[in-house]
Amino acid sequence: MTKTIEATNYILESVDTKERFEDGAWTLDNPNSDKPSLIKAIYQKKQIDFKDSSYGIFRFSDWLPVKKFLKGSSATVTYKSEGLAKELGLSNLYISFSGYWPERNAKFRTCSFKETEAYSVCSRLDSTNNILVVASAGNTARAFARVCSDNNIPLLLCVPEDNLSALWFDEEINSNVKLIATKSGSDYFDAIHLSNIACELENFIAEGGAKNIARRDGMGTTVLSAVNEIGRIPDYYFQAVGSGTGAIAAWEANQRFIEDGRFGDNKMKLMVSQNTPFLPMFDAWKQDSRDLLPLDDDKARKQVEEIDAKVLSNRKPPYSIPGGMYDAIKDSKGDVLKATNQEALVAGKLFEKTEGIDIHPAAAVATASLIDYANNKLEDRDAIIMLNITGGGEEKMKNENKEKILYLEPSVVFDINEDKEEIKKKIADLF
Hints:
Elements: E1 10-14, E2 20-21, E3 39-43, E4 77-80, H1 83-88, E5 93-97, E6 100-101, E7 106-107, H2 114-124, E8 131-135, H3 139-150, E9 155-160, E10 168-169, E11 177-182, H4 188-198, E12 204-206, H5 213-219, H6 221-230, E13 236-240, H7 245-260, E14 269-275, H8 280-286, H9 297-306, H10 325-332, E15 335-339, H11 341-355, H12 361-376, E16 385-389, H13 394-400, E17 406-407, E18 412-414, H14 420-430
Parallel strand pairs: 5-16, 8-9, 8-12, 9-11, 11-18, 13-14, 13-16, 14-15
Antiparallel strand pairs: 1-2, 1-3, 4-5, 6-7, 10-17
């Protein structure tokens, strides 16, 4: 059944200066300042009203910067763990699952929490006159392709060629969605560079990444789901991070719940993890450095090739910027953890054995970090812990849809050193 929602009332605030201003057509920065800083949405409704699950992600629309309703969304499902909790000796482990698990009413068709940001971002768009440009290491591209295809929103995806296996779908993608790639051997940062070139063209607009309030607040619905189910703000929040945008979103959602006043006033510790050997945030955090440490491009690409959780491969995450990861982890008294491919593999198998569903490599990295922390550092076995499973059920989805699964092919594969004007011409010709 189709639901209707009203546009959410909110204004924007610069994290750095606290200056407030109205949202423009697609505001990503403070228009009155040249200093880098995230901006955030200040919602008119301080106490959230949770709608029923039939609204999908829009059950959280009080705290989403949305202008319209899009069809096809699903909301994160949070439940109290029994199997993994027993294995780890935890009495209050809650799992927030964003993926395909219809038995628990989780119906993310792309099996990833990136759908939360895709629906929120696309619902913030005023019109379909512009072409939305999204760079991705895989899951984000799949989510935006599905949402934009289903809702007839023009979209240009930029993905590394080595990550194209992530562009699978259970139904054909419409022609309003175009895919271009950077050639084999490139990484997510190269895809971002390609997307920046595309955005120099008229009517092509950058999705904005972490700077987009809709992306962060869409991802923050994982915490809204958890608090709605638990009845209070968790003590710990575990998630694997590439850009860290989801963890920043969790921190911001925490702040809104404190202001709401009905769910406690504690700050949940952000326990974020990266996949060894690609550890830009881990390395900087362990040196208490607001700035990321220097990392050679070729060395970074080699490290990215080695990690199983390819979606955690952002070389320039929003770590240093005011309101970014460094501030979020500091304020929450959290930590940056790490897990090897092998540790994540073991953790993923344990999760499937104890909880009954397969999970993505990134979610397995988060689970591995939780296992290590619970076994070696956690003092309070009764602490309320939220484990953000950012993707899962893909094996289940593919097994149930064997005859349907198809892959989106790139219209053009670009050399990262190709002439900029030639790149722009080829992109413009796609539309």
